[in-house]
Amino acid sequence: MKPSELRLYQNFLLLAQELHFGRAAELASITQPALSQQIARLEESLGVKLLVRDQRQLALTPAGVVFRDGIAKIISNFDQLAQQTAAAAGGENTSISIGITEYANLPVLADAMSQLLLAYPGARLERHEILHQQHGGALMRGQIDVGIGVVLGGSQAAMAHSAEISSRLVAASDWSLLLPDTHRWAGAQQLPLASLAEERIVTFAREVNPPVYDGLVAACQAAGVTPNFVFGATQSLFGIQLARDGMGLMLGTAFVLGTPPPGMRVVPLTGLEPLTMVANWRSDECRPVVKNFVELLFASAGR
Fold first, then answer.
1. CATH topology classification for 3-72
2. 178-206 residue pLDDT tens
3. What are the Cα distances from residue 84, in Å, to 51, 77, 165, 171, 244?
4. Multiple choice CATH, 94-172+276-302, 3.40.50.620, 3.50.50.60, 3.40.190.10, 3.40.50.300
5. What family does the database annotate (predicted)?
């Protein structure tokens, strides 16, 4: 497979994942017209239409679905072959690319990384900001080796490429409000969901994780609650600092809030599904360093 062909197929997989030329072109680091021309040439060479385009949406044709799944498998096998070849020559690649949402504070992940570096001192860890829903395509393209997703509840854990991608729940955490020790709710054992309408609330920005944010808003609406969100932070530490400064109460889970700062406490909030941490990896993964990392991840969660 020529490098130019590999890049073309990878760009098609990006488009099949995003179903939006603008977003796919941005991920591929090319212009939208260039991506459109690439896809047109690919369809011409195959003699079939891979996508249906109209003014409102973009969708894969049945042929496009078959080609997406097939080319994703070929690229995955190609990457696996390269790794096996390097290992046979005594040059095992100990680098790992991880897809994760940076906003979440995941102590389990940090512990697993530390343990991996003890076992593989020369290991190199590369982070990619990728949402859980995008892990399937990123894994099949070889962009990442392991995806650490954060979802609301556990129902979103299954990947689109279910046969090729393994998914497993790692940990879950209920929602809480971070508030001052002097707050009127500081002595409460737990708070109802309606509390989100009674005080100013600092939370994460929607752009951090749109599915989780939208899920929270939908749960509130279903319960007849209009949350008083006054600020959406893109960095968890900044949100916590705003809560300390009195801008509002911070909504989060243990993945984000961690240990409360001095003078603050965490009170559990009822009425929301827990935030769940999910690990995704290729089912046919052959590299020992990746397999060991996944095992360390679950071992850290069990401690």
1. Arc Repressor Mutant, subunit A (1.10.10)
2. 999 999 999 999 999 999 999 999 999 99
3. 34, 10, 19, 32, 51
4. 3.40.190.10
5. Belongs to the LysR transcriptional regulatory family.
